[in-house]
Here is the input.
Amino acid sequence: MGIIARKFNPDDIESAIDIWNEIVEDGIAFPQMEQLDKQAGLDFFLSQSHTGVAIEEDTGKMVGLYILHPNNVGRCGHICNTSYAVKGSERGKRIGEILVKDSMEQGKKLGFRILQFNAVVSTNEPALRLYKKLGFTQLGIIPGGFLMKDGHYQDIIPHYHVL
Here is the structure.
């Protein structure tokens, strides 16, 4: 089973919002609390500098996605930020690695110089291992920076990588 990364298109919307909303509903990784409907999802994914999707080559099924956009404006506009989502039933298959590597390539193509993650939740061990493997630098710990779905606060660990 090969996985390819490609640019999001409007025909992808149903699968994209299903995967995105699964992460939002879990309440342990994304800052968003509201589910996307079809129109809000389309507006959201098309408004990004780049939205990439991971597709299973044999079946054409979407198994993950990411959004990439500026992390800030003006004098810090050369720094981009991304969020990644892998379908729950597809985790552990290195799809996240494919998405992160593609986002790094796309960010560089778009003229960004640095990729920064603002809020990697400290309990997201698979992401932390992947970012370390890919050479990201941890910037420290923000105590209690993320409100978990169950109401407690968890530390977040910002990261960056020079593109």
Observations:
- The two ends are 29 Å apart (CA to CA).
- Residues 48 and 54 are 16 Å apart (CA to CA).
- The chain has one domain: 3-162.
- The longest helix spans residues 95-109.
